[in-house]
């Protein structure tokens, strides 16, 4: 990304409005009026072939008539004129195109977008949009959009794929008292995308937090990269999280990989905090834009009401930062600022008698104490106290404590006076909310940010050329055979190339061969049909387990062949796989899918009902290393089972993490070949005893 080009697009020193109109109500009129009203300092050049003056500004028939240089042009002409106007821009030396016009790829006219991209490339211009509202910046006094006014001034930047939402949120900044420095409508992202803006904002001193409204990313991996590299917190609200497309998936993993799950995991990998809804996006943005991250989990709550204190305690547990009792010296000090019947444990209940002084004293002490890592101050409006005075006391205490690296969130519960006091707090840099739950949720966002900064790192990954070569032999043979589904035996050979601990499995083409192989592997064995046309072997009656002797082996051979033919008369039967019968362990599933946005993606979960019924699985965009694998184990609801629940000994998580890493290496190396895959079940044994991949499935990409 060229920073200078991006500056010309998003912080232009001069602007042309192409399609500026003298008719109020037209977008070309509104954009011009907005630039004027917002106090934009640079020269503005209205361009319209048939006007000489608009809104008191000299109007130019064409860009060529303008003598000064122009950084950016806001396009307000109909779609059929955009490309010709872009040509004019290029010739004039314009560097940024802010294309408000609709009618491009969003309505199936990708061709028009491609034309525009080509023109922009030819002249080295960057494009914001098309199909956008425009871009707004308080610090640049620039409303280059048709949103009605600049947002309430603040420290966050909103980047949104929905233009209408930008307009709505712009107005809502005033009612919610959440300030933004910038709002950028990103639209179709034909050139500049969300990742580019994240990168660009790293050097923007006026923006401390990036809030995203995402409908769908185009390049998921680029987004993860810029998220990881961001010097500022990023919070995202993702819409459109239904599991569309999952039904058509051929593998187990494919059917479980809904958009919500993959995006959720990708956000974690990118270090991006999530918002649950619009309210939550505002609330969390407020805290993230004003406060430092919560570095630990020693949270102190100071309140004048037991009820809100308990509500905060419940919320803290719900949001993963459970409360602890404060150490004795904190309690002893707190007791000095409360009556006999107060409680100093945590929440610190100063009681309804608490006035400004008690609040100020206790808040100042709490922030200064080394045990306290984050502070939540709650207040219930009382007849004896003045909310604004309490607010000022809290702010004074924060300033006097002088600790800039400890976050504070506040909740005032009450009426108009409390609302006014909270507005004052926010204006003075302290996030304040109308309910204790919200103050705790905001604190949890600050904790998530601290944790994500630790975990959202580039995983270690080195391509394994030798393994890839061995795997490609098997894949090429299957392709030569006209197949895009490997048989179990072939899939296991690919797994083995990557040193995955698969059960020994060999192919028998006759009853006698089956017996000989079973003897070689050692009874008991498992016998399974091998046919490219029968992927769901059990459904076809194609699996027999615990075959203990030769007679059972012969009988199973014939039954399986008969069942397979009954299931699919024309199935091409390669033979029967004779497989070592692995001792039973904790059933897990590993898989991969090819996400349209993020590419190869790894899935992990517990097998059996956990995956079938509860869909208790988690995802990571590949590559995944051992560290991230362990994060995945801890993330599923049934995490305790692997750690050894209900008296069972812990499972071999170390071996499992190594297996996930190898699996991920295989998927990454063979990114161009493998579409979906499953290792299911993977039986995990006690600590130190490893695991076995019992069944393997690989579906190739169609070529
Ligand atoms: N150079 C400069 N100006 C020109 C040129 C030219 N080559 N050719 C024509 N114009 C002038 C026109 O004469 C007109 O000015 P006038 O009012 O003085 O006649 C002006 O450009 C605009 O042209 P119109 O044909 O009047 O187009 P109109 O203003 O009706 O629509 C617009 C243009 C707004 C770009 C429309 O095509 C459009 O795309 N609208 C949707 C925009 C949108 O909603 N984007 C955000 C989506 S996000 C959301 O949902 C909110």
Beta-strand content bin: 15-25%
- Our measurement of the CA-to-CA distance between the termini, rounded to an integer number of angstroms, reads 33 Å
Helix segment tally: 24
Global outline: flat
Structural class: alpha/beta
How would you describe what is shown here?
With 703 residues, this protein is α/β, with parallel strands linked by helices. It is 40% helix and 20% strand. The chain contains 24 helices and 29 strands. Strands 9-8-11-10-12-13-14 form a seven-stranded mixed beta sheet, with helices on both faces. Helix 17 (465-480) packs antiparallel against helix 18. The two termini are 33 Å apart. The model is unreliable at 244-250 (pLDDT under 50). The chain binds acetyl coenzyme *A. Acetyl coenzyme *A binds at residues 18-19, 21-23, 26-28, 47-51, 76-79, 81, 85, 100-103, 131-133, 163-164.
Secondary structure layout plus pairing:
Elements: H1 3-10, E1 15-18, H2 27-37, E2 44-47, E3 53-54, E4 57-58, E5 72-75, H3 79-92, E6 96-99, H4 110-123, E7 126-128, E8 134-137, E9 142-145, E10 153-160, H5 163-176, E11 180-185, H6 194-201, E12 209-214, H7 220-229, E13 234-238, H8 252-256, H9 259-270, E14 273-274, H10 278-290, E15 299-303, H11 306-318, H12 328-335, E16 348-349, H13 356-368, E17 374-380, H14 387-401, E18 408-413, H15 416-427, E19 432-433, H16 436-455, H17 465-480, H18 488-497, E20 505-508, H19 511-521, E21 525-530, E22 543-547, H20 550-567, E23 575-580, E24 586-595, E25 599-606, H21 609-612, E26 617-621, H22 626-635, H23 639-644, H24 653-669, E27 674-684, E28 691-693, E29 696-700
Parallel strand pairs: 1-2, 1-5, 5-6, 6-7, 10-11, 10-12, 12-13, 13-14, 15-16, 15-17, 17-18, 18-19
Antiparallel strand pairs: 3-4, 8-9, 8-11, 20-23, 21-22, 21-23, 24-25, 24-27, 25-26, 27-28, 27-29
The protein binds acetyl coenzyme *A.
């Amino acid at each position: 990304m060229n920073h200078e080009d991006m500056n010309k697009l998003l912080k232009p020193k001069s602007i042309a409005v192409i399609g500026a109109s003298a008719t109020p109500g037209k977008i070309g009129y509104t954009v011009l009026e907005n630039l004027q009203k917002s106090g934009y300092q640079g020269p503005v050049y209205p361009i319209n072939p048939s006007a000489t003056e608009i809104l008191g500004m000299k109007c130019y028939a064409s860009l060529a008539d303008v003598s000064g240089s122009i950084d950016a042009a806001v396009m307000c002409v109909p779609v059929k004129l955009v490309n010709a106007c872009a040509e004019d821009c290029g010739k004039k030396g314009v560097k940024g195109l802010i294309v408000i016009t609709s009618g491009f790829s969003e309505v199936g006219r990708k061709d028009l977008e491609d034309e525009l991209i080509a023109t922009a490339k030819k002249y080295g211009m960057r494009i914001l949009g098309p199909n956008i509202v425009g871009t707004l910046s308080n610090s640049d006094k620039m409303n280059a959009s048709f949103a009605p006014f600049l947002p309430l001034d603040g420290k966050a930047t909103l980047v949104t794929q929905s233009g209408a939402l930008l307009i709505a949120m712009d107005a809502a900044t005033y009612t919610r008292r959440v300030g933004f420095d910038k709002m950028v409508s990103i639209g179709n992202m034909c050139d500049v995308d969300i990742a580019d803006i994240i990168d660009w904002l790293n050097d923007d001193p006026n923006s401390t937090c990036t809030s995203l409204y995402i409908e769908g990313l185009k390049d998921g991996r680029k987004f993860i990269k810029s998220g990881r590299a961001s010097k500022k917190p990023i919070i995202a609200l993702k819409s459109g999280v239904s599991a569309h497309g999952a039904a058509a998936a051929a593998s187990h993993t494919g059917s479980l990989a809904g958009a919500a799950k993959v995006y959720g995991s990708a956000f974690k990998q990118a270090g991006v905090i999530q918002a649950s809804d619009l309210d939550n996006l505002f609330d969390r943005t407020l805290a993230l834009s004003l406060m430092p991250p919560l570095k630990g989990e020693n949270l102190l709550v100071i309140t004048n009401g037991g009820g809100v204190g308990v509500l905060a305690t419940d919320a803290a547990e719900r949001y993963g930062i459970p409360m602890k009792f404060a150490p004795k010296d904190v309690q002893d000090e707190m007791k000095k600022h409360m009556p006999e019947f107060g409680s100093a444990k945590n929440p610190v209940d100063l009681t309804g008698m608490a006035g400004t002084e008690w609040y100020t004293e206790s808040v100042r002490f709490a922030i200064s104490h080394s045990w306290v890592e984050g502070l939540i101050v709650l207040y219930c409006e009382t007849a004896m106290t003045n909310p604004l005075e309490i607010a000022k006391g809290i702010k004074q205490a924060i300033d006097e404590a002088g600790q800039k690296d400890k976050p504070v969130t506040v909740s005032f519960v009450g009426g108009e006076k409390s609302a006014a006091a909270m507005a004052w707090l926010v204006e003075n840099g302290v996030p304040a909310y109308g309910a204790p739950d919200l103050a705790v949720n905001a604190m949890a966002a600050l904790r998530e940010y601290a944790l994500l900064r630790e975990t959202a790192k580039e995983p270690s990954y080195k391509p394994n050329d030798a393994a890839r070569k061995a795997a490609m032999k098997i894949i090429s043979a299957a392709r030569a055979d006209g197949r895009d589904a490997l048989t179990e035996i072939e899939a296991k050979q690919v797994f083995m190339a990557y040193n995955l601990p698969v059960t020994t499995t060999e192919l028998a083409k006759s009853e006698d061969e089956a017996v000989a192989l079973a003897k070689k592997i050692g009874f008991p064995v498992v016998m399974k049909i091998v046919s490219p046309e029968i992927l769901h072997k059990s459904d076809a009656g194609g699996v027999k387990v615990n075959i203990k002797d030769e007679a059972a082996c012969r009988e199973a051979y014939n039954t399986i062949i008969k069942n397979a033919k009954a299931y699919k008369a024309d199935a091409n039967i390669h033979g029967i796989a004779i497989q070592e019968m692995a001792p039973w362990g904790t059933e897990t599933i590993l898989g991969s899918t090819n996400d349209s946005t993020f590419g190869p993606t790894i899935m992990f979960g517990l097998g059996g009902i956990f995956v079938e019924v509860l869909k208790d699985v988690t995802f990571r965009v590949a590559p995944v290393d051992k560290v991230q694998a362990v994060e995945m184990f801890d993330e599923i609801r049934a995490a305790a089972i692997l750690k050894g629940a209900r008296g069972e000994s812990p499972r071999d998580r170390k071996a499992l993490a190594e297996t996930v890493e190898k699996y991920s290496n295989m998927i990454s190396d063979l990114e161009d070949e493998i579409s979906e895959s499953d290792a299911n079940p993977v039986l995990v044994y006690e600590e130190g005893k490893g695991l076995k991949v019992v069944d393997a499935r690989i579906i190739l990409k169609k070529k």
